[in-house]
Amino acid sequence: MNSKNIKIKSTTSKLVYTSILIAISFIGSLIKIQGSIALDSMAGFFAALFLGPVYGGLVAGLGHLLTAATSGFLLTIPIHIVITLEMAVSAYIFGIVYRKFNSIIASIVGILLNGIVAVLILMPITTWLGLPLNGKTFFAAMVGPLSLASVVNIVLACVVYKIIEKRVL
């Protein structure tokens, strides 16, 4: 049995695991790296591996909302709604790529999506909203910490999944 064969069939079990992972995401949301960048998405990326991409997207999106709420929505509610969607899509795509390829390729894709691409998408929105930190300045300030947080969250998710995978076997 390889890592792509762990399957949880019961809907009730998936809902329970999802709830637990959302709670873990809340704990991660309290471990801040910078502003509203935290260790909230580890549970979402783990969920994408363990439960599937849809559950991973759900946990990652809600995890970001928890981080934004505990940070006071520093970048405004509209920006955090966009980030919530970006997080959900990043975790979803991470889960899809993992199932088709492997953890290394999925991790690279997840880090690029969640680190660089997310900030590139937000640049024009920050300018349009007239935020003090916008455009290229926003990119310069956010890409490093967000990429670092992405690496930490995704690597932790993969490590925890590999540990659990060995116990399931």
Automatic annotation (TrEMBL):
Keywords: Membrane, Transmembrane, Transmembrane helix. The chain crosses the membrane at residues 15-33, 45-66, 72-97, 104-126, 138-164. The keyword Transmembrane applies. GO terms for molecular function: transmembrane transporter activity. Pfam families: ECF_trnsprt. This is ECF transporter S component. It comes from Anaerosalibacter massiliensis.
